[in-house]
């Protein structure tokens, strides 16, 4: 099957497709990481549909079942990196640091033609590689990241190594703002700046939310942009839902430094029906059929589709 | 049908904290997931939100200990020791601070995969001088773990069950006391945490097959009562099977092996649990089957040990209690 050109569809269209897929999944499965689709749909669509230079996928469109964890006795082990294309010097690499965004990332893979829709049916099913918290072997995941705050460090190391080898490909990390609470994030930025790692950039979903609610109420982090600049990064701050602004931010020159784009997002973008749930948006679930039906009808209307038809439940 | 108790930790912690003014509640952005959201809302002056910053939380707790408080730290078990291990050593264990580490989702009880599964916590924790290590296996033990842990003069790590927890016992967890759940004389079976329920599932089938099992349930993993284990092992003619929700290296299987070797008691030992492997994400029942940690794995191990063909198959075992993926008792599907 020919691989569709990266920009065969508009990025707006891909973002809408992501929201629709994640919404449908969450309604059908009676819960899920839905708010992350609201905040990050444009960001992931932008990465896969235009910002990254990725080769065609090297792994089957329908994901293989779980094939065992890495060990000397498992020579056939593969990561999910193949969904982002081959590891060639001129191609970019992408890490999804907050691995609980996996559902959104999988939906994006489908929208850009890198995974078959069947892949999402396998989400969180026993024996499947399409795990709820994206594992290293899950589609589109290149390294294990479920423990938050390690992504940028690994990316910095990979970027330094690639630069030394003369690779032209860049390393990109999709990050969450909760990660700035972890000390390691700051050690990573510090090291990247110290070593002049400028083939490295990050896109951070600044939705101001974390598990317990608004970050402001859980642990104040202050002005992330100023702090990152003080630690040596070039920082661009934009509206996460403005693709023009995303493009402009990506074009920001950052010689000798990593670029970090702070994408200020709304955790209910495109699904304002969710708004009354604030400040508890981290994981959306329904306490009753009535609540699910109302959410189904409300969001479906916002997304311009018919409510998801449910079987017996 | 086994009785299921909803969110036993929530109630037990609140009662214990209210009776003990020096107890503080710390959380690392997993407040609902660790069932302390009600406590936070009702007793904000006793609750410290530490954000997703575990390294700081551990050393901070060491400081609270120095100030005379007894902080209870709440997170998924894995986040309480993997990254903040150095802080645990220097700020808590060495100075013997009365810090209570309440680790939720032990072993493969989370579908979150490698990064969420505490599979080497017992091994790590028991190697740390001054640590006490406890594990809950039912609702009664969850209800009594706060008081038991808080009585310890030093740091404590607890593996805590959450959500809908079965009630298997009617007496509280008592520090240093193991439970003798069956007093047979062929095979000694040693379990803790969720593996106890697995062994109980196989009990009737063993009885019918004429295998006389002696079953011990551990809730105090350190200090480890080696003398009692050796005495029980000596009373069983074929040997010992350990079954743990953990790597066999360094966990209960290792503790039993050390006890037998040091006592010079020659008994065969089969250690069930994760065999030098990471685990992946999936439901609890599936993962227990996949990694050989369930009732069926125990039956096969007993057959190997005794050389008997028990004829026990899945149908002969007690029903598996299936966990609802989405339950109002859990903050997320983890
Ligand atoms: C080191 C670590 N501590 C705790 C967790 C549990 N956890 C998962 S997501 C999350 C915070 C979510 O905030 P954020 O990363 O900003 O994601 P978002 O709110 O956008 O979903 C936490 C605490 C974790 N995965 N890793």
Secondary structure layout plus pairing:
The complex is a heterodimer of chains A (313) and B (334).
Chain A: H1 11-28, E1 31-32, H2 35-51, E2 93-96, H3 102-111, H4 118-121, H5 151-165, E3 171-176, H6 183-194, E4 200-206, E5 209-210, E6 213-214, H7 215-218, H8 224-230, E7 234-239, H9 243-250, E8 259-264, E9 284-285, H10 289-303
Parallel strand pairs in A: 2-3, 3-4, 4-8, 7-8
Antiparallel strand pairs in A: 1-9, 5-6
Helix pairs in contact in A: 1-2, 1-3, 1-10, 2-3, 2-9, 5-6
Chain B: E1 4-6, H1 8-19, E2 23-27, H2 37-42, E3 47-49, H3 54-66, E4 70-76, H4 85-93, E5 100-104, H5 121-127, E6 132-135, H6 139-150, E7 156-160, E8 164-166, E9 179-183, E10 187-192, H7 195-209, E11 213-218, E12 220-222, H8 226-234, E13 239-247, H9 252-263, E14 268-274, H10 284-290, H11 295-306
Parallel strand pairs in B: 2-3, 2-4, 4-5, 5-7, 6-7, 10-11, 10-13, 13-14
Antiparallel strand pairs in B: 1-8, 6-12, 9-11
Helix pairs in contact in B: 1-6, 3-4, 7-11, 8-9
Family (chain A): Belongs to the transketolase family.
Protein name (chain A): Transketolase domain protein
Pfam family, one (chain A): Transketolase_N
In brief:
The complex is a heterodimer of chains A (313) and B (334). Chain A has 313 residues and is of the alpha/beta class.
Report the uncertain regions of chain B. none
Helix/strand class of chain B: alpha/beta
| SSE series of chain A | HEHEHHHEHEEEHHEHEEH
Number of domains of chain B: 2
| Greatest contact between two chains | A-B, 41 and 39 residues
Number of helices of chain A: 10
* CATH A-level architecture of chain A: 3-Layer(aba) Sandwich
Query: C-alpha Rg of chain A, in Å?
Result: 19 Å
Number of strands of chain A: 9
Query: What pattern of helices and strands is seen along the backbone of chain B?
Result: EHEHEHEHEHEHEEEEHEEHEHEHH
CATH class of the largest domain in chain B: Alpha Beta
CATH topology of the largest domain in chain B: Rossmann fold
InterPro entries (chain A): THDP-binding, Transketolase_N
Family (chain A): Belongs to the transketolase family.
Protein name (chain A): Transketolase domain protein
Pfam families (chain A): Transketolase_N
